[in-house]
């Protein structure tokens, strides 16, 4: 199986959905977390998945902590990276190393509402629908090539909480499915060297 790392910063419900999906064609060999208090760490520990947890405040620069992180990714022989609620922009270094092998899931129909608080942004904009996007990660903020999108209707009485629940239900189904599609497609062309 293809060895992958999942990156998350908080609750980790998307990480959990990947763990729980029995059809996943990859093996999660590392959880990367930039928030030592995050619930997602507990989820990894319960599942016996190794973790790489760091506190960015303890480093002088992004380059410094990413060099350490890179070492952990290389040691774990990680081939693909899946961002799932990782609330930090990757440096050009990691994007370059990951070279079209990094996906992210975002709770809006990109290019609408990039960055933080996408659900709140959609509610405040008064639009009738929003959704979920899975895309490749490049050096911009949620600007990489889109792989899949699914719409979620915004209902008149929606609050951030209710809309988030419906969006996440879609995310938990869509992300494992798209990851599988991308990896299966990729494996057709990756004959090694
Ligand atoms: C997810 O809804 C994900 O789409 C979003 O954070 C949430 C994390 O939830 N990501 C972003 O907003 C990225 N800009 P989780 O920790 O329960 O998976």
Automatic annotation (TrEMBL):
Annotated CDD domains: FMT_core_GART
Pathway recorded for this protein: Purine metabolism; IMP biosynthesis via de novo pathway; N(2)-formyl-N(1)-(5-phospho-D-ribosyl)glycinamide from N(1)-(5-phospho-D-ribosyl)glycinamide (10-formyl THF route): step 1/1
UniProt GO MF annotations: phosphoribosylglycinamide formyltransferase activity
Residues of the site described as Raises pKa of active site His: 142
Record EC number: 2.1.2.2
GO cellular component, one term: cytosol
A biological process term (GO) from this entry: 'de novo' IMP biosynthetic process
Keyword Transferase: yes
Swiss-Prot/TrEMBL keywords: Purine biosynthesis, Transferase
Annotated residues for binding of (6R)-10-formyltetrahydrofolate: 62, 87-90, 104
Domain Formyl transferase N-terminal: from-to ranges: 3-179
Main enzyme class: transferase
HAMAP family found in the cross-reference section: PurN
Family the UniProt entry places it in: Belongs to the GART family.
NCBIfam families: PurN (TIGR00639)
Protein name: Phosphoribosylglycinamide formyltransferase
Organism per entry: Oceanobacillus limi
Organism lineage string: Bacteria, Bacillati, Bacillota, Bacilli, Bacillales
Protein's gene: purN
């Amino acid at each position: 199986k293809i060895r992958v790392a999942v990156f998350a910063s908080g609750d980790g419900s998307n990480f959990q959905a990947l763990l729980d999906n029995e059809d996943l064609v990859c093996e999660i060999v590392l959880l990367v977390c930039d928030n030592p208090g995050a619930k997602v760490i507990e989820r990894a520990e319960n599942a016996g998945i190794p973790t790489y947890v760091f506190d960015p405040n303890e480093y002088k620069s992004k380059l410094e902590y990413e060099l350490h992180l890179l070492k952990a990714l290389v040691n774990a022989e990680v081939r693909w990276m899946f961002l799932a609620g990782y609330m930090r922009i990757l440096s050009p270094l990691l994007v370059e190393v990951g070279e079209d092998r990094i996906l992210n899931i975002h709770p809006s129909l990109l290019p609408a509402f990039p960055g933080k608080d996408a659900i709140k942004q959609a509610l405040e904009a008064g639009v009738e629908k929003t959704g979920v996007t899975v895309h490749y990660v490049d050096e911009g903020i949620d600007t990489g090539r889109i792989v899949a999108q699914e719409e979620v209707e915004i209902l008149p009485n929606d609050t951030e909480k209710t809309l988030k629940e419906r969006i996440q239900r879609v995310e938990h189904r869509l992300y494992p499915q798209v990851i599988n599609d991308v990896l299966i497609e990729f494996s057709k062309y990756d004959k090694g060297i």
